[in-house]
Design goal:
alpha+beta, Rieske Iron-sulfur Protein
Length: 161
């Protein structure tokens, strides 16, 4: 008895699934760059949206436990700030005891801001500068402010709200 050959009329399921995954990855990587044009989505300057939940008990987590502290108030210099690249947030202290937080993603082309100095948050890609007090643009090419991120200061601990 001779076994009949398997049909070979189309690609294997594994090939189709792999191609779909590769296409999805390409779309995600392409979407990383932002634009300043009017067709891009805008964020209300009063927004308190933070970075997406990474499942580690931070913002938006339903783990029931306390959020992991982002920093100590002593880590944030008065009149300056600190970039937390891993959490995609920058925390500033514009005046003694006043703490603010903003997205660490530049609104010009989506680069990560790199530092805080001389009262401004600096983006190294195209030299946009943002106010440490309200995230507003101090110098372009960016035209939109950094979105605010909600934080909670309790004692000397700063956490994402």
């Amino acid at each position: 008895m001779t076994a009949s050959p398997l049909p070979t009329s189309g690609p294997a399921r594994r090939t189709v699934v792999a191609a779909a995954g590769a296409a999805g990855l390409a779309v995600a990587l392409t979407a990383c760059g932002g634009t300043d044009d009017a067709s891009s989505s805008s964020v209300d300057s009063g927004s308190t949206a933070g970075p997406p939940d990474d499942g580690a008990g931070g913002a938006g987590s339903e783990g029931g436990g306390a959020a992991e502290p982002l920093a100590s108030t002593g880590d944030i210099p008065e009149g300056g700030g600190k970039v937390f690249a891993d959490r995609e947030v920058v925390v500033t202290q514009p005046a003694a005891g006043e703490f603010k937080a903003f997205s660490a993603t530049c609104t010009h082309q989506g680069c990560a801001v790199g530092s805080v100095a001389d009262g401004v948050i600096n983006c190294p890609c195209h030299n946009s500068n943002f106010s440490i007090a309200d995230g507003s643009v101090k110098s372009g090419p960016a035209t939109k402010p950094l979105p605010a991120v909600e934080i909670t200061v309790s004692g000397d601990s700063i956490t994402l709200a």
